[in-house]
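User
New here, help please:
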Amino acid sequence: MNNSELIGNLQEVLDELSSPILTYSPGHIEAVRIAIDRIRAEGKETAELKNEIAELKKQVQSHE
């Protein structure tokens, strides 16, 4: 998976986390963590992506 695909996947996750009707599940949260880990492993974070990841972490932590 290339960086563009990872960013696209992360954006989809962020959109889902912003949805007021979403039911949070452990599988969904794990998918978010995997996406973040893969982006970090490839060393392709940008300032914008770092901000998105920080926001995502806050949202995930608030629902654990």
